[in-house]
Amino acid sequence: MTNMPATQARATPTLWDKVQAVNAMLAAGEPGNISSDERAGRSGYKPQAIVDAMNEVFGLDSWSFEEMESSITQVPTARGGESGLAVSRVRAMLVGTAAHPVAWGQARVVSGDLGDARKGAQTDALKKALSYFSIGSRAYLGLLDGEDHPAQTQHPARTATPPRRQDNPQS
Asked: Which of 78, 84, 80, 76 is nearest to 109 (CA)?
């Protein structure tokens, strides 16, 4: 029997292991890495916290994103005026999977700052695209709570078996 070096004895982390490691890093950084949108009434992870965790766990060459579309549009406001809105469409890619989810994001134009609005829309779309891999799941499950970040609506625990579909019998 040959002895295997310790580095080879450890199993290579799976994609799911890496996703869980990113989520553990995000949870460990709470509440400092949480931002709240009081206007929208929701909390989420700061984009830089997600990017840093992705770089740490996956490495710089094992994940990426592509901005597929970016625009600024005018939308009506509740007061009857118009406001600028940046919209972005992003595709996220992780090495080890053929899935490349695409998501949309948006951000308001504040004080005429188009660059900041475009950046906000892009990172909003990136966070949503990564959520299809379960990155940042505590945010979309409404579990980000802290003194300054009240928990959103709690979701029931997920079960291993989905509920059975009940067909409506025809009379």
From this structure: 84
